[in-house]
Amino acid sequence: MTSVGSDGGARSRPLCGGAPEDEAVPGQAEWVALEQWRASWRPEVDLLGGTEELRALFRRAMRHGYAAYVAGARAMPTLFALDSSLAAMWQQGFADARRDAAIGVVCQPACDVAQRA
Predict the structure, then answer these.
(1) 81 lies in a domain?
(2) 72 in the Ramachandran plot: left (φ > 0), alpha (ψ -120 to 50) or beta?
(3) Is 9 inside any structural domain?
(4) At residue 23, does pLDDT exceed 70?
(5) Other C-beta atoms lying within 10 Å of the C-beta of residue 102
(6) Is the pTM of this model over 0.90?
(7) What domain count does the chain have?
(8) Domain that residue 111 falls in
(9) Which helix (H) or strand (E) holds 19?
(10) Which segments of 1-117 are extended strands (E)?
(11) Of 101, 95, 36, 31, the residue nearest 60 (C-alpha)
């Protein structure tokens, strides 16, 4: 996804979570991707079609939750909360980060995302 930076130029540098560096609304890319996946999925043609794409989307949502915990956030972004599937994946990532912190292990890519946020 490409966004417009404060200087008016397009920016689309991907991070660990798959979101642009200056994404104004956390979860926007994932929410749009999920809606596009739902619109294009045709169970009568291929029941399992697009499952890898959906798994990748859910992994990105989990990374957002993980990075949010590392960054010290305590609230789920609105766009994740609007969709129960994305909310569940975000919460799983958040819980994974909390568990990792309890045992003293934190995923380095998530730390990189948190530092840029």
Answers:
(1) yes
(2) left
(3) no
(4) no
(5) 8
(6) no
(7) 1
(8) 24-116
(9) none
(10) 3-4, 10-11
(11) 31
